[in-house]
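Propose amino acids for all 496 sites.
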């Protein structure tokens, strides 16, 4: 019989659960959305407070909610029954913050980790976050949530029904509903005849470069990477999407089954000033290519900020959007001076693909790969109008300035070594990967305007003149917390 450590040492083949009792035990006790994104375009995230409640009452509430949570086993089985354009019904999850474990008292052991136990607001100095008092007024500013319920479905009305049912049931229990964040995934159709893809509000494909630790998904992705055209300037081994589950999943200290496991979960509400970002993007394009620069050159300027074109084409591979399946096996081995894709570009800052190994002379790429998280975010805010063919947002000049953005969500084995390291040492570090790089222009946070100066150059065109330009902050934290996604055996049996 395999123990949990052995199961998490290699990508998990979920279909083995039909014959392997150890894999079945793991998947039946693990919550959905960890191994694989739930994939629903509508969701509600309900933050809860347990202040003033007795530990037994808190345990009773968690048991009741836990009975309705979706297992990884159920998620994977039901998704398999449906065609690719449909999902497998509702997904329901429950995560607990440090306050939730404290409220449980003797009924639960607190998960490890200084960051988790302190909570996200207390780590503002490490993350360069604004203080809690500067967060949005509704809910997040008042107190740290003790728990969060996630409800997701393809049908927004189904999410609303689920949400209202939970609200009615919680009424009278003593639980306080602090805030409800509705998620609505924005999409665009980049290639005629193909299904729309998830994008964030700035218009760029979102969710690529994901670590994969589910064997069935990994087989498809590795075949796709192998089929990608080779870059003549980068003939080396492609970037691998293969990761060990132990980078994202840990033993649940309160689990009741042999393979009880969970994951640390970071939730951040990031408001996007879309109109400001688009205007700054266009201004950069005109500074680089002249006042009469066309849309293609303005899009190139945007790719220098993000590291990809809007359709996902990596800037290191092309000077223009290719309008084809997005390559994901690229590295920066053929762009070691950061000429084609700037070192400050968002996707290079947060997934350096060999830059760390090369810059610091390390024996392997673990320094590039170990901080990677399993991202499960989605957009929030009103649905934006689209062009007739669904390829473009149709609100030029009226793009949202507030009340729209990204609900950043990610699972990991260590908040300190993954999320906080990425934000502090990579995104916010003006000297990563080289001195004078500047902070990440998308999610980087700094009080020093000089660290928002970036060097831009059309590295695909020999002799192109570089320019140094500031790029303001257009993404602002409005709330969030650190949580742990416990095993179902704990949720359904706590206090008994």
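Proposal:
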């Amino acid at each position: 019989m395999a123990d949990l450590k052995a199961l998490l040492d290699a990508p998990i083949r979920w279909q083995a659960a039909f014959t392997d009792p150890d894999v079945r035990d793991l998947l039946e006790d693990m919550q959905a959305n960890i191994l694989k994104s739930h994939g629903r375009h509508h969701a509600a995230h309900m933050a809860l407070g347990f202040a003033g409640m007795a530990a037994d009452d808190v345990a009773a509430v968690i048991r009741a909610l836990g009975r309705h949570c979706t297992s990884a086993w159920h998620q994977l089985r039901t998704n398999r029954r449906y065609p690719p354009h449909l999902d497998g019904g509702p997904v329901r999850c429950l995560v607990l913050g440090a306050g939730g474990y404290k409220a449980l008292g003797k009924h639960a052991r607190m998960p490890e980790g200084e960051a988790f136990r302190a909570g996200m607001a207390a780590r503002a100095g490490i993350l360069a976050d604004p203080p809690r008092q500067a967060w949005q007024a509704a809910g997040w500013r008042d107190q740290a949530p003790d728990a969060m319920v996630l409800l997701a479905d393809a049908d927004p009305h189904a999410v609303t029904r689920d949400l209202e049912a939970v609200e009615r049931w919680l009424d009278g229990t003593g639980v306080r509903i602090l805030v409800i964040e509705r998620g609505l995934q924005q999409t665009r159709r980049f290639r005629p005849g193909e299904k729309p893809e998830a994008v964030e509000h700035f218009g760029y494909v979102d969710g690529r470069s994901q670590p994969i630790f589910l064997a069935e998904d990994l087989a498809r992705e590795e075949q796709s990477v192998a089929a990608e055209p080779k870059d003549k300037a980068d003939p080396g081994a492609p970037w691998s999407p293969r990761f060990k589950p132990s980078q994202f999943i840990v033993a649940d200290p309160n689990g009741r089954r042999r393979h009880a496991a969970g994951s640390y979960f970071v939730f951040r509400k990031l408001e996007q000033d879309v109109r400001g970002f688009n205007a700054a993007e266009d201004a950069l394009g005109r500074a680089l290519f002249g006042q009469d620069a066309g849309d293609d050159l303005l899009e190139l300027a945007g790719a220098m900020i993000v590291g990809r074109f809007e359709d996902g084409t990596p800037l290191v591979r092309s000077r223009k959007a290719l309008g084809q399946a997005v390559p994901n096996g690229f590295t920066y081995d053929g762009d070691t001076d950061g000429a084609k894709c700037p070192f400050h570009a968002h996707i290079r800052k947060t997934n350096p693909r060999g830059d760390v190994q090369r810059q610091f002379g390390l024996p392997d790429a673990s320094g590039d790969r170990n901080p990677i998280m399993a991202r499960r975010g989605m957009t929030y805010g009103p649905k934006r109008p689209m062009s007739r063919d669904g390829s473009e947002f149709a609100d030029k000049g009226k793009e949202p300035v507030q009340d729209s953005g990204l609900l950043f969500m990610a699972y990991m084995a260590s908040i300190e070594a993954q999320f906080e390291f990425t934000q502090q040492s990579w995104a916010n570090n003006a000297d990563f990967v080289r001195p004078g790089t500047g902070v990440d222009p998308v999610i980087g946070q700094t009080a020093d305007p000089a660290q928002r100066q970036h060097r831009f150059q059309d590295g695909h065109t020999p002799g192109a003149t570089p320019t140094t330009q500031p790029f303001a902050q257009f993404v602002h934290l409005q709330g969030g917390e650190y949580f742990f996604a416990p095993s179902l055996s704990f949720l359904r049996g706590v206090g008994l």
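The first strand starts at residue 42 and ends at 49. The longest helix spans residues 274-289.
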